[in-house]
Amino acid sequence: MLSTVAAFDRIGEENAFAVLARATELARQGRNIVNLGIGQPDFPTPPHIVEAAIKALRDGNHGYTPATGILPLREAVAADLHRRLGVEVSPDLVMIVPGGKVTMFMAILMFGEPGADILYPDPGFPIYRSMIEFTGARPIPVPMREENGFAFSAEETLSLITPQTRLLILNSPANPTGGVTPKAEIDALVEGLARFPDVAIMSDEIYGQMIYDGLEHRSLLSYPAIRDRLILLDGWSKTYAMTGWRMGYSVWPKVLYDKARKLVVNSFSCTNAPAQWAGIAALEGSQDAAHDMVAEFDRRRAVTVAGLNAIPGVSAIVPKGAFYAFPNITETGWRAKPLASALLEQAGVATIGGPDFGVYGEGYLRLSYANSTANIEIALDRIATFLRDNRPA
Ligand code: PLP
User: Engineered SS bond to 133: which of 10, 51, 159, 161, CB 3.0-4.6 Å?
Assistant: First the structure.
């Protein structure tokens, strides 16, 4: 019997992939499934980005690149951050990595060990907790409360920091709730963090360009006071419909950059070369397709939220970002995971139960509106019919 190290008894995963596999299997059996479980845009990568990757291959850009990414791409990231957020970032602190997840993997590895506490949002992206547990650190959930718009509360977050706290993970706009933390709350949080200079911060801003109602994305990069301990996580997956390309980037404090580079050298060597050239085209080319996609998500958001609120027992606050709704289903009498499972098996609608995003997710479902309006309407209809005809066991 092979026996791996104990950490592998603690590592978790993302149930969204299991739901996708089950939905695909049911569809293969001939069932009609509407998939609102998956967290990726249902749009093609814009053609000019695809062409840039093809051109890169034709031009012979198919070898290893520098571990931290090609310089023109790191420069393009710095220019994009300046254009969008008005912040100065040196390309020397930008690292290109294969997807958004890689930055959280590295950051949690850097700060997690037995005896350390790491704060993370709950409900939140499941890999945060999984990786924290993998390292042996103690996961400390920061509750994301519906009555607070599923945003971070500066006061509550700061109250959870102890001398053991090594890393604070932030995420706004958020998965799975669509919550956006208001600027005033981020201001207060950063101000309070001055009292805890040894706590590193990882801000996951992968949905930073998917924000609605005229709100502006407030990046943690905008606060010079924490730049020496801030790790920014961002990438191309959501903004440019590039989930399968595996393209992400991080901005590191100077003291951590070389440690991150060594992790790259010890694991994947560099990010896919043609994908990096495509990444330049994405940042420097027309943003029309990206903007059109967000405008379409905005329309579907309205359909989704209105449809959910029309179902007896279901209530959904209006999500301010990302492409998820997180309806409260407690009044239906169902618990979230059995309901998600019954909806998939019996009603042909894939959703994700809130507890897959943490204990504070009980009582909620996550629905991704990265699907056509026609499909969203079918799904809402099926959910309403199912809840009308079925009582929980
Ligand atoms: N961070 C959040 C909050 C996400 O929702 C996701 C993907 O769903 C990621 C990071 C990972 O993105 P990527 O697919 O680029 O690894």
Answer: 10
